[in-house]
Automatic annotation (TrEMBL), chain A:
The keyword Transmembrane helix applies. It is found in: Cell membrane. It comes from Lentilactobacillus otakiensis DSM 19908 = JCM 15040. Keywords: Cell membrane, Membrane, Transmembrane, Transmembrane helix, Transport. This is Polar amino acid ABC transporter inner membrane subunit. NCBIfam families: HEQRo_perm_3TM. SUPFAM superfamilies: MetI-like. One of its GO terms (molecular function) is transmembrane transporter activity. Belongs to the binding-protein-dependent transport system permease family. Coiled coil: none annotated.
From TrEMBL, chain B:
PROSITE patterns: ABC_TRANSPORTER_1, ABC_TRANSPORTER_2. Belongs to the ABC transporter superfamily. Pfam families: ABC_tran (PF00005). It comes from Lentilactobacillus otakiensis DSM 19908 = JCM 15040. InterPro entries: AAA+_ATPase, ABC_ATPase_HisP-typ, ABC_transporter-like_ATP-bd, ABC_transporter-like_CS, MetN_ABC_transporter-like, P-loop_NTPase. It comes from the Bacteria. Keywords: ATP-binding, Nucleotide-binding, Transport. GO terms for molecular function: ABC-type amino acid transporter activity; ATP binding; ATP hydrolysis activity. Residues 6-241 form the ABC transporter domain. Transmembrane segments: none annotated. This is Polar amino acid transport system ATP-binding protein.
Amino acid sequence: MDHSGISVLFEGTNFERLLGGLWVTVKIAAVALIVGLILGIVLGVLRTFKNRPLRVILRLYLEFFRIVPTVVLLFLFYYILPREMNFNLPGDQLATLVFALWVAAEMSDIVRGALISVPQHQRESGKAIGLNRYQLYRYVLIPQAISLEIPATINLATRVIKTTSLLMLISVMDVINIGQQIIEANNHTHPTGVFWVYGLIFLFYFLIDYPLSWWAKRLEKKRLERANG
Amino acid sequence: MVEQILQVEHLEKYYQKKHVLHDINFHVDKGEVVTLLGPSGSGKSTLIRCLNGLEEYQQGTITFEGKQINPTEKNWQQIRQKIGMVFQSYDLFPNLTVMDNILLGPTKVQKQDKFAAKKEGLDLLTRVGLEDYANAYPRQLSGGQKQRVAIVRALALHPDFMLFDEVTASLDPEMVRGILNIIQDLADVDHMTMIVVTHEMNFAQQIADRVIFLEDGHILEQTPSKQFFSAPQTKRAQEFLDSMDF
């Protein structure tokens, strides 16, 4: 006999399993973001230096991760690199690596954009009081760039969290993959289960991403209010 | 004999192919106030910016306090602590309070004791009438107040030499007097050596010991101030003075 669809969420350990999947998702996104943001700031600063070969290499790195679709990147790292270069990592670690490299690439562009939009006069005023390059970045340019880049960075974080939904393609037991398993296992008893499982997943993603997106909007509004006096 | 603090010899500057400074030669004595005058685009700002390494020059030498400057960025970082500069656009660092703006150079570059530097910063702020604004952020200050803080920020490094690049050009007229008084005070009380680029002819006349008149990247004349304003040597300088409303 058919059950009402929503009960599929509470059969056995289904709900705990979905929460566990969500935890995997959040963990991968969080670690990738932390590592990627730090690496991205370093790369972004390097991209504002005059050294031409360095700039070209970092630009190519950015374009590679920006142009190649994330799915292709995941497949590349998951299927091709192990075979060609004998580079083996479990799916979740590999996913974290790919996402961190992607975040670093995007972040480098955000940081670079923010740094070069700090007015030239600020740089000169800093030099005029004898600051060296490190001090100029540390005390003058980076603090000013951060307030410009925070909204874009939060938006990047929401994109990363959403994109973790691709992880099932490389067999990571994320929330989507577990949801899919539950749907398939309960297909006979709960024909409308798919609606409820994905509905819950929708809610999960919404609860994580919406506050971030709201926060980004609020910070941007505050910054503009401050900038316009 | 008066000690020379700065000598510029045969300085040439190009922007790509454009020749902007031609064979610049002059010196500044210790305690002397030199104003750089000339029409817009004559190279005044470019020249003054060469003197603390914000612009590169392609030929010639600058000698500061008896030592010829080897113009690498690292050397300039040292020299800039001795040559203070204030700009037209009074660029305080908006992320720092007034006091932190002032302390950045003394504590991070010169590693002065923070407590002593702070006390001195406060004295300097008092001198320019802004002692109540130490903890304000630049956005809470008027243009004239920002420019006064910018002057204090430069002085906090104990420079031997100050460069003022059109420091009143973007201020409201009623703010200009206050800034000029501070510069005048530096000349009279501290006997600070300085080069002042300005369009305020009355002020130039009042403060300068000597005028360097620049046009199209050439120094046309260097004359004691009194003589320059009463009877300049060149026809171009006379025309320039006639065109200025003062």
